[in-house]
Request: fold
Amino acid sequence: MDEIKLVFDEPKQRVKPPKHFADLAPEERKVLATELGIPAYRANQMSVHFFNHYNDDPDTWTDIPKDLRETLATNFIPKLITLVKSVTTDSGKTRKDLWRLHDGVLVESVLMRYSDRTTVCISSQAGCGMNCPFCATGQAGLTRNLTAGEITAQVVAAARICATGELPGGETRLSNVVFMGMGEPMANYNAVMRSIRNITTPQPDGLGISARSVTLSTVGLVNGIEKLIEEGIPVTLAVSLHTPDDELRDTLVPINSRWKVKEVLAAADKYEARTGRRYSIEYALIRDINDQAWRADLLGRLLKNRNAHVNLIPLNPTPGSKWTASRPSDEALGREAVHLEPGVGWTASRPSDEAEFVRTLESYGVPVTVRDTRGREIDGACGQLAAAEITSEA
Ligand code: SAH
Reply:
């Protein structure tokens, strides 16, 4: 098999994104304010505006003197993300937002309203270096890491959309955040952790969303899972397993060349033991690739004594699977050639194979759900986010 390229470090950046309030811990915000000659209580006022009222426009903060508002805007609340376009489906209950960052880089987030919750799926990197052949984001490579401010800003924007009643059904509260948009969160560990703290810290210093309502999904960077265990924040951990055997996983999730199935599950078990939180196993069902009865059986045996829940995701189409012929070569994209054959022409499992897969797992007592995938019509479903590619064509 060809050597598969994994990218852990972002390419050198031209201009760093401006520093933002949300890049800092609450104490650091106060320290910076004091250094700038601003009383520390102003940091609290900023928190109330930003994290409680979801207001990122200091110009409108009338409890703060006008000239100070400008200082705050420059030093603490620079505009990090600008909405380029929104596309909706499900009668408006699913909405994909395309954001432009300060350097023109594009990322996407997806907001989904359900009867009992509203979830935002956010991006932690522009592009991704993990190279999973069935994921559109991976096919485009890694552009750069997002800062904590840029990640948090997506959540604040979603919370604002919920609070202002922009979604059909009227005002609501943003209840869940999933790191399942563009990027591998564990490959941008520090910024992701800062943003998780911003999301879970009670108001006014954070958004006050409970850690159990935040899901971090990873390809299985074991060193990241080990670090997360030490943080003491019981977010829900999701591991993109996609097959129970190393042989196929080496191709489906190339990071498997570093950390094998056994090691990933051992790390997830340790996470479960320390946090008491059941973890999720994500499994994209790909017709005739990973959906065979014997694989369901092997997965059932692997998970039957573990505190894990399987989330099956019918494979969503990506440009690689739809328009292989028109895809630019890796050379044209300025990166080394990758193993391209996997992914070509792949599609979701037959309903009968999917049903059998579910039954087999259930026969082992393994809890399993098939993800009610949202946003396929707007290329907003799992693995379809590829903002940069779409707009460069437009
Ligand atoms: N990098 C992280 C988070 C991003 S994707 C991770 O891989 O876990 C969130 C989930 O969508 C992952 O389980 C990913 O494998 C899955 N996914 C990617 N492409 C997909 C596709 N085309 N169809 C269905 N699921 C896909």
